[in-house]
Structure formats: C-alpha cells, structure tokens
C-alpha cells in the first residue's frame, strides 16, 4: 500500500510504546488518557519502521481493518464495557497457534495457505481479555530448532544485532517485544523456545508448569505434554498477567491444572519466607555441557545480584548422570515430533519441501518401539523423582538459558561449542531440557551482556521452580527486576 494511503502516519510519535509496559498501556486506555485508535496507529507506525529490518511480525492484517477494530474497542470503553486488561492492546500470535481468518503457516511452505476458521483456546482467551490480533510472529519451520528462519517468511534478526540469530522458536515474539513493536506476547516452549529467545533478546520468558496452559484443540490430549504455551514480556507483572490470561483448566484438556492460581495477584501479595531463597547453581553440570566463553561468567554475575538480595546461591551437582537423561529425551522428542510430521508427508512433494531436520525427527521416530518408549518414560520418571530430592534442600535450580551467544543468522545451528562437535541439530540447546522433561515452571531472566567478541549481546539465566510453583519463580524474578532496573532498562538500538 502506498504511504499516502496508510491510515496512520509512519513518522508519528511513538513514545507511548517506549514509555509503558502492557499494564501501563492498559491503565491509560481504561482511564481515557489514550485511545485504542491512537495505540493502534502508534503500533502500526512502529511496525512499519522497524519490522522490515528485523522481520519479527508476519501475516500483518490490513491497517484499515485494524484501525476500525480499534475504533470498535474505543466505542466499548465509551459505553463502559471493557473486555479485560488487554482491551485495545495489539497482539501478534506465534505462527504455531491457530488464528481464525489469519494464515497459520507453522513456517512451512506446505501450510503457507492454511487459514483456520477458528481460534485455538489460548487465542480465544487473549481476544476475550480485549486483545486485538494484528497478525502473527515468526517461527522456525514447525517450531523446530532454536533459530527463527523459514522459507515462507525468511529469517528474524536478533533485536540487538539483526545479523545474529533471534533464537527460537518464539524468536519473532521476543524481537517484537524488545523492539517495542508489541507490549506483551505469547510464545511456546518445547525445547527452550520461550527461554532461549527471551535470554537472547533481553526480556522475560516463562515456561509454565506442565498442564498450566491447556492446548485446545489437540489431536492427542494425553501424551503430548512436553510443549506448552506461555508468556513473554518486558516486565514481570506483564508476564504474570499474560499467564493469568492463558492459564486455566479446560475439560477438553483433561491433564490441564485446575488449582485456580492467579499470578498477578500473587505478585502483589506480601510473601513471608521462613528462610532465604536457596538457589542451586548447576552451571555446566560439572563440565558435561559445553559452554561458549563468557556464558557462565555472565550468568554468575546475575546470581551475584540475586545473592545481594539475600538469596543463598550454592554451586550444586546435578547428582545423576545427564547422558541417560539426554538419551531418554531424544526418544520422547522423536516420537512426539514425528507424530506431528507424519500426516504432512502425504501432501504433494512433501519430502522435497520440508526442512531436513523435521524429516530426521520423523525418520528417527519410525524405528522406535513401544518398549523403547516405555523405557524412556521410566527414565524420565526417575529423573523427576531425583529432582524432587534436590528441592528438599533448594527452592530454585539455576542454569544458563543457552550454551552459546547469539550466532550468525546465516548459520542453521552451531556445529561446535568450545571445540566439541554437536551430534544433532539441537544438541547445542541441551541445557533447557531439564525443566521441560520434569514439567517444572522456569523463567528466563535477563542476565546481562557479553564482552569481547560477544560485546553487547544478551544472555539469560533460567530459574527453575518446584512443581507447580509458578508463583514462586515469578516472585523471585520480580525481586530481581525491582533491584536491577538499570540493567533491565537497557534497550536495543532501534535500527540494529
């Protein structure tokens, strides 16, 4: 569309997007200090200016339709009928979630023309809270690989250096947040897909407890529990409010939690601990996990900040051999991912058009027997029981959110770390499997920035909580945030 025909001015002031988080915008909208139209116009202008550089938001709806929808939200406010805390706030949904009337491609050319008729449950909940869905956020093909690129939309560049990887698979959401194109966002996490891009873009990303956010509809409601949707935000209060919107039992998801937890409310409550929070620093698992130079140092600086808040940080051994855990993880992953890929292989020219990593997952799964899967499930159960033992002495487990700094966006994945060859396309992200495999809540908090060759590149620290203690890790992240405002206010260059 020619610039002269846009229903907004590309150069209009956008300071409202820089000055407020989603909660602040919500308060301004509900108080009548800002209109939904003004917020939509500012958002579209920001996307117009920055998205061509970073490629975070895809399938953007027509501006006229979005401004008209914002006007309708303004009319509801004028009548005293707000929908919820997200009323009038633009939202772009990760391109793995079904959105009615908007292409849901999964980053795959096989699904490039797929336009769902209905929203999935999480999207419906965001709309019910008043969010205006403007489009999608970019993701790697089928969400596989923690690097956001695909042949449908291209590569998403890191918010701090677009020549580097944004991480993934929620890379588009993380970059849109960091570049202030969105105020709050959804993502999903199977193998660190909320935590890695959050760490690499200097924002917060949370993988909730298993079952906290129901997946509806789902072909399988009983077995496929490793992946989960979750929130991403620049502030912990926005993270908690988005989780409140996403979470909640649904009878169509029989394993979804029904404990009625409210996370924004928990942040606002005084929490009296009988003793300091004890953090077990697992580091590189006594040398088992290869780490690029500077990653551990950066995370340890963040742990020093937590210690200054009164936390007790203790270097701790995992206490069980990690290689069998990885082998069990591979079995679970190949079975679940292979089942997702299998139906697509019936489409014309599927094998030629699908990414090789997806085919590898499928083919690996074809040789897996029921006995092998059950053995891997037993190993997973034993690992969970072992972690319960660690939580008898510690409240939180800490690990880096990645083993490398953001790498060149032209690479598919790191072939080596610290001289050690990676034997799979995702081995370089082994550090994130432990929270996933045990179904535990985990937050990636901004740890700081690299030095030397990695100067100015962000890194995150995972804080992994006890079973179902989502509120506890949120409170710890909020305490860190309150004490480290100077670090967390750091913003990436607008132009990269």
UniProtKB/TrEMBL annotation:
InterPro entries to which the protein is assigned, alphabetical: Amidase, Amidase_dom, AS_sf
Pfam families attached to this UniProt entry: Amidase
Domain Amidase: from-to ranges: 38-474
MF-aspect GO terms: catalytic activity
Annotated NCBIfam families: PRK07486.1
Family annotation (PANTHER family): INDOLEACETAMIDE HYDROLASE, TRANSAMIDASE
UniProt protein name: Amidase
Naturally occurring in which organism (per UniProt): Pseudorhodoferax soli
